[in-house]
Design a protein that fits this description.
Bound molecules: BIS(adenosine)-5'-pentaphosphate
Largest sheet: 5 strands, parallel
Number of strands: 8
Strand order of the largest sheet: 2-3-1-4-8
Radius of gyration: 17 Å
Length: 229
């Protein structure tokens, strides 16, 4: 399989839905590279706002460290800013958004305004307990953002990024067992109901995200190719 990019087709917009550690970021980066779509992670946008010390970032910091959801108002403002940039016209992979009913409805309105639609919502099904191990073992390259795991996705050479050669590896402040459990609770209370929301819209697929990274990748690739028509 190869060669199909978004350059000669209409934009395809996807949502990756799943709890912390389900593999949303890992798979979104794969889809970005393979299909030329744009990964749009509200978690990354919020972490950038925290690092930049913006008003939104200051308000979000403690909420994120407690594993709770940041307010819809802040998240929607950040998302709308990002959606206003030209590159998203290629199609997006929404990673970590929407997370509440209000966010899902706001996204529907944004898509309608832009004359676009959500083509496919993919729910990554996983076991909660395994997610604590996955998230606690995660680290990323501080330069290019490539994601790794102590057990499941090691760098080829210890401490050196396979992709860009950097030795700057970092771990997230909210990646500890206690906070992951709060994030899982928030997911089940506020985000999991969106599975039924998108099922009613007829655009939901579910995949087994407990499988190995490459197997999950193959399943997702199949869904995207079908969405491309
Ligand atoms: P966010 O950054 O979105 O984090 P999250 O949803 O908790 O998800 P993660 O990034 O932890 O997991 P992932 O699914 O991307 O997994 P990954 O691919 O890294 O949100 C952080 C916080 O920001 C929230 O708690 C909230 O406060 C706030 N926020 C963000 N968006 C918001 C919104 N819309 N509304 C309100 N608040 C918001 O994989 C994890 C690890 O497992 C990696 O090491 C990877 O290598 C490994 N791995 C991946 N797949 C597999 C596999 N199949 N087998 C084995 N290992 C695997």
């Amino acid at each position: 399989m190869g060669g199909a990019t978004m350059t000669d087709t209409r934009p395809v917009n996807l949502i990756l839905l799943g709890p912390p550690g389900a593999g949303k970021g890992t798979q979104a980066r794969m889809l970005e590279e393979k299909f030329g779509l744009i990964q749009l992670s509200t978690g990354d946008l919020l972490r950038a706002a925290v690092a930049a010390g913006t008003e939104a970032g200051k308000a979000a910091k403690a909420v994120m460290e407690a594993g709770q959801l940041v307010s819809d108002e802040i998240v929607l403002a950040i998302l709308k800013d990002r959606m206003g940039e030209g590159d998203v016209a290629k199609g997006v992979i929404l990673d970590g958004f929407p997370r509440t009913q209000a966010q899902a409805e706001a996204l529907d309105a944004l898509m309608a305004e832009a004359g676009q639609q959500i083509d496919s919502v993919i729910s990554l099904a996983v076991d909660d307990e395994a997610m604590v191990t996955r998230v606690a073992g995660r680290f990323t390259c501080g330069d290019c953002g490539e994601g790794y795991h102590d057990s499941f996705k090691q760098t080829a050479k210890a401490g050196v990024c396979d992709k860009c050669g950097s030795t700057e590896m970092k771990r997230r402040a909210d990646d500890n067992a206690e906070t992951v459990r709060s994030r899982l609770e928030a997911y089940h209370a506020q985000t999991a109901p969106l599975i039924a929301y998108y099922e009613r819209q007829g655009c939901l697929s579910e995949i087994d995200a407990m499988a190995a990274i490459k197997a999950v990748e193959a399943d997702l690739e199949g869904i995207v190719r079908r969405a491309l028509g």
